[in-house]
Amino acid sequence: MKGQSRKKPLLIGIGVLIILAVVVLAAYIFLKPDTQKGSKEVTIKVINMAGEEKSYVVKTDAEFLRQVMDEAEGLTYDGAEDATGYMVSTVNGETADYNIDGAYWGFFINGEYCNYGITQQPVSDGDVFSIEYTKG
């Protein structure tokens, strides 16, 4: 009898973990951003600390912003992967360091703040992205 009483909470715990895993997977499947397959033209505008703007027009089959940034001729960026995704710290040789002066690179799509990081932000034909040096 003692052995059975110890197994019951363990089985309940395993059951709860399985249910949670299914719920998380379902949420990801239903809430992940939709992507557009096929050829598209995307514009990326970089606005640096001085307010100067440089534009890149990319013809691509990419589905996410990071892929488009990789294909944009002349656009360079650097950053680091963290728990929330890829954090861009440097664009075209200019570094924004929040820890020093509250600066960061803000990402916008068609005039609205991006809802996703660059690895998950979907792109569609005609999208205009802005990468703006921003001081908080």
How does this model look, in words?
The protein is of the alpha+beta class. It has 3 helices and 8 strands. It has helices at 2-31, 65-71, 98-101; strands at residues 40-47, 53-60, 77-82, 85-91, 94-95, 103-109, 112-113, 128-135. It has a 5-stranded mixed β-sheet. A hairpin with a 2-residue loop joins strand 3 and strand 4 (85-91). It is elongated. The mean pLDDT is 88.
Provide mean pLDDT, rounded: 88
Please count the beta strands (DSSP E, at least 2 residues each): 8
Largest sheet: 5 strands, mixed
Order of helices and strands: HEEHEEEHEEE
N-end to C-end Cα span: 63 Å
Structural class from helices and strands? alpha+beta
Ranges with pLDDT <50 over ≥5 residues?
none
What radius of gyration results from the CA coordinates? 21 Å
Keywords:
alpha+beta; 136 residues; 35% strand; three-stranded antiparallel sheet; elongated; 3 helices; 30% helix; single chain
Question: How are the elements arranged and paired?
Answer:
Layout (H helix, E strand, L loop, with lengths): L1 H30 L8 E8 L5 E8 L4 H7 L5 E6 L2 E7 L2 E2 L2 H4 L1 E7 L2 E2 L14 E8 L1
Parallel strand pairs: 1-8
Antiparallel strand pairs: 1-2, 3-4, 4-5, 6-7, 6-8
Summarize the structure.
The protein has 136 residues and is an alpha+beta fold. It is built from 3 helices and 8 strands, in the order H-E-E-H-E-E-E-H-E-E-E.
